[in-house]
Amino acid sequence: MKKTIIVTGLLAFMFGMTSCGDGESTPAPEKKTMNFGGTEEPKKEEKAAPADIGDPMTMKGIGPVSSVELGELDQAMVAEGQELFEANCTACHKVEKKFIGPMIKGVMERRNPVWVMNMILNPEEMIKSDPLAKQVMVESNMAIMANQSLTEDQARKILEYFRTL
């Protein structure tokens, strides 16, 4: 009997606590930081705006590729590029959605082909020195693209596959 009264009382208390208020949520208190004077100051939580890095379609990145000529689609290259992409890239990239890395579909409308190839071939230097690659890394929760040690020919085939997406 005593347990029933205690359980009933706790349930009534919990019900009463959840039904209090006017239905609006209370904002969380501001985070505070200590300055060197020993007083607390409110800490503003602002997401940093992406840096103005210019037009991504004109950026070429850092790496061995300085130009790419795009002509008619080469279906043999597309097929080989798809195989290479599936073997080396799908652990982090998906075609139709953002995963660990950016979504691949539409990348050729978002990035210069030279930049794409340099990112494939030289991700360490790109992430270290290229402002667009740094931005992509931030947008990917600081995931660093792994160097798959591909050749320029392999990267070009992957690029040809990307052109079909």
- CATH architectural grouping of the domain at 75-162: Orthogonal Bundle
Low confidence ranges: 7-35, 41-50
Shape: globular
Helix content: 40-55%
CATH topology of the domain at 75-162: Cytochrome Bc1 Complex, Chain D, domain 2
- How many separate helices? 7
Strand order of the largest sheet: 1-2
Identify the CATH homologous superfamily of the domain at 75-162. Answer: Cytochrome c-like domain
Please tell me the overall pLDDT: 77
Distance between the termini: 69 Å
Biggest β-sheet, characterized? Answer: 2 strands, antiparallel
Structural class: mainly alpha
Q: CATH class of the domain at 75-162, please?
A: Mainly Alpha
- Topology as H/E string? HEEHHHHHH
Descriptive notes:
It contains seven helices and two strands, in the order H-E-E-H-H-H-H-H-H. It is mainly alpha-helical. Strands 1-2 form a two-stranded antiparallel ribbon. The longest helix is centred in the N-terminal third of the chain and has 17 residues.
Secondary-structure map with pairings?
Elements: H1 2-18, E1 31-34, E2 40-43, H2 75-88, H3 107-110, H4 113-121, H5 123-129, H6 131-139, H7 152-162
Antiparallel strand pairs: 1-2
Helix pairs in contact: 2-7, 4-7, 5-6
Features of the shown structure:
about 160 residues; mainly alpha; Cytochrome Bc1 Complex, Chain D, domain 2; two-stranded antiparallel sheet; 7 helices; 2 strands
